Amino acid sequence: MKILKSVRLRNRLLVAPAVLGLALTAACSNSSSSDGHQGATATLTGDCAKYQPYAGHAGTKVTMFASILSPESDSLQKSWSDFSTCTGIKISYEGSNDFESQLPVRVAGGNAPDLAIIPQPGLLAQMVKTGKVVKPPAQTVDNENKWSPVWKTYGSVNGTFYAAPMSANMKSLVWYSPKAFQQAGYQVPKTWADLMALSDKIAKAGGSKPWCGGISSGTATGWPATDWLEEVVLGGQGGDVYDKWVNHTVKFSDPPISAAMHTVADWMQNPAWVNAGIGDVKSIATTTFQDAGAPILTNKCWMLQQASFYEAQWPKTTKVAPDGDVFAFQLPAVNPAVANPVEGGGEFVAAFSSRPEVQAVQNYLSTADWASSRIKVATGWVSANQGVDKSLYTDPIDQLSAAALTDPAATFRFDASDMMPAAVGAGQEWKSLTAWFAEGQSIQRVAADIDAAWPQ
Amino acid sequence: MPLSGAQLADSAWNDAAIKLGNSLGAIAGFLGILLVVFFVAGRATGRFGRPTAIAVFLGPAVLLLLVGLVAPLIRTVYLSFRNDDSTRFLGGKNYGWALTTDSIHQVLLNTLLWLLVAPVVATGLGLALALAVERMKWQALYKSLVFMPMAVSLVGASIIWKFVYEAREAGQPQIGLLSEVVIRLGWKHPPNWILDHPLNDFLLMAVMVWVQTGFAMVVLSAAIKAIPDEVTEAARLDGAGGLRLFWYVTVPMIRTTLVVVLTTVMIVTLKAFDIVRTMTGGNFGTQVLANEMYSQSFVQFNVGRGSALAVILFLAVLPLVAYNIVQLRKERTTR
Amino acid sequence: MSTQTSSVTVPLPAVKAVRRSFSSPLGSLFVVVVTVLWTLPTFGLLATSLRHQQDVADSGWWNVFTHPELVLSNYHTVLFEGGFGVSGGLMPYLVNSLAISVPATVFPLVLASMAAYALAWVRFRGSDTLFFVIFALQVVPLQMALIPLLQLFSGGAHLGSFTVLPSFDLAGTYLPVWLAHTMFALPLAIFLLHNFISQLPRDLMEAAVVDGASHFRIFRSIVLPLCAPALASFAIFQFLWVWNDLLVALTFAGGTPDVAPMTVRLAQLSGSFGGRWELLTAGAFLSIIIPLIVFFSLQRYFVRGLLAGSVKG
After folding, report:
1. What domain count does chain C have?
2. CB contact B242 to C (< 8 Å)
3. Is the pTM of this model over 0.90?
4. Which domains does chain B have, with CATH numbers?
5. C270 versus C40: which is more confidently predicted?
6. Contact yes or no for B301 and A421 at CB 8 A
7. Which of A133, B80, C229, C313 could covalently link to C305 via disulfide, CB atoms 3.0 to 4.6 Å apart?
């Protein structure tokens, strides 16, 4: 669930780019506004020259709808402000936390945005089914080849490519406090067995419990639990079973998934191991995912499995670094035979209009050039585009995520619940896993309920 | 160029003036057109007078209702018999699903519970308050404070109460009012309120009661004041007093008001999905029909099932409406 | 409601008897307790919104009584930070809320009073049935109307090649929101106003007809002035409803600063702020201030208007 990273980023937005942006505004407006409406393509000069391929649409407006909220949406808007001022294409951005229900309503109602940033391939497939999604222009498809081919498949529906990937995030992380680990003499575990042994050791040492967790997230309550299950399925059963699970040839009630659920239960539902500083196992269901990691800072809790975007949750004064207050290590594979399992999420740009200015924006957003521009605005954002210069990442978590996401040897898979049909991935699975934690429903019942909700 | 603070404020005020100007312009235009229509239609006399008047007075409202409510209602009924992308006719399968699925049973049960408890408690409390506040000093103050939640949106109210129910592990400092109070009263390990089924159902209903009691109180208080004094006096001469007077005179006299208040609160209760959506997202066994319908239709794309639930919701309220209509008819014939 | 008390005649002994059984010291205590209970959550909201982030996370709001350390910085954050570019304040949204709410209150009010008058005094065959059907429409869940209405507004209405209704350009206009709110408000408005208007004195109406006044004249010069309290009370209702609405605004206006009201903006903020109670509460408190002002300044009309419709007399 990428959408939910719509949370407070630490306010280290750089002032310099903003000022620079304003200066550019002044510089560019002269060159582009002179003959904007003449039909003939303007020649962009100076700093604007690199936007020449997108010129010729001055005075137009492109609407964009997404789930990304401020302050992250501010970073997005800054990342294309030069593009906008140089080309004269105004991008009217709207973010909503009801994006997942509003987008279908607007599309069905004939009021679709020009562009939508969709975090779930499942939702993209639903939108394609309406027949309103427009295929991307040739240039975007071309740029696409600079991404790893697997990402292209996530933006495709039934083999046809519809939406270019934009950002990527790394899910397989465990947050911990390097300082606390050092003081206690604990090592960062390299294997699943080490991780379990360490958890046991911490629990036996008394005073605190090894894990904390929170799956409460408003109407999307339950999504962090889907991540836990996905990590264990991928790391324990491998990519093949994972893929079959996503398209329901392997059911929730089938042995591999049931086994994975038992592993999750031994880990995150172990009363001796959770929920440090907050309550019992049930309290995981009422703790917001944003608050779940807070006890790590007060040494009440040792580890939290959460995605890279959880970085935004730490207070401003927290140092996130390998030797800092908090950092993250990669969750080891449950089954050592699975090579470097990495679960990730991402966002895809779908178009509902083929107007030339919309395609110009689409083309621009699919370039490594735009990705670099976004990376420079603020940290906490990673592109899966392999054309992006990795030295641009300044934040250690971003560096860690980028390395894992572009590692050719990794067993990379996209968030399963985001790929499943919404009735499961944004409905029954959330509900049933929440009931699993909150009401102690049996694994059998949970699996059966989810399977029953799969669309016929 | 960076705008200075003053310029920014200027442009904000300009923007505000334009927007509000547009709004007022729209209102003026609307009233202007009406006046012209009234003037022209007023010329029609004799045989055409009445039909013209009916058309002009009722036309716009009926047209808007047909477009805004009747057509969507028919569409929903149609969709409820079809599959999720409405390409196949399913017969009553969606209704069958609703009536045979365990989780939907729970939803129906909760909805029924809400329908019975919340309106009755809100109305009952409202009535008791209306009677008790009558001769107190500063009654306007009390009434205003109790009525105040009515001005808060249901989402806002849910945020307020979520905060009240916030629970932390015993021993930790509490930030939720409810936990703090019961711990001070000696309950060492209070539950995690929002998880504790079926208690959580009632905790959620408390939000609705909190919002609606003031409404019930204000309306009922006005109704009680409007009872002609001769009526109660006569009853008293017949030997009635105190509670008997209340049951046999006051309540019957304000019965119509009671029914209207009860029905209004019931309809609000049935349609409200915001409280459950904001406070539990329908988890922990608290789901109700209105929220399940919303989630099925708009989040899970089970349009057929969602529509079937909407129709069930509609049918559930229909008897209430019918009862009200019967009451109204009775009232009309006595007039 | 002070106006009420003044209009009540000195209670006769019988009325006293009923009231005495409820206005005992016990009854007064009951009122005080309920009032305190009813006010506490809102007070807690206000108190929380004025505290430091760390205080809110560590201790309950009732500690303000012992450690009264209050700050306005949360309001500053909500109002001015995390906004769109340079003009990040809530101001444009506040203006939008007003620009949406006022017409969306006036339109249904006028149309419903017209319809109610026709149903009550220009009786025709089926007028009763029509009234009951309109009353029954109250129960249609408005979620079901979102998609068809949006289709209508964006695509217009066509009969074959004939355009019955042109399509709107939905971007940046309040019109669809006004229309949608008007449609959804009509059933309750017609119901309440009909109850009031149908009880106007028959003699007065008949005298006007004898004098040769047309229905339009009667409506303007007799009905409207006489039902001012009912109109006011419904106006409060409708204003509060529109002001507090999120779903209709989100669907028909969208979330850009051009048209989006406060509720939409606050929903975005609550998403951004996640578990930050002190900011959420500040936002929530901001959103209820204007409805509270409207309510407290108009409340004396409220009762009078509602009363007439529902009491036998």
Report:
1. 2
2. yes
3. no
4. 5-79 (no CATH), 93-334 (1.10.3720.10)
5. C40
6. yes
7. C229
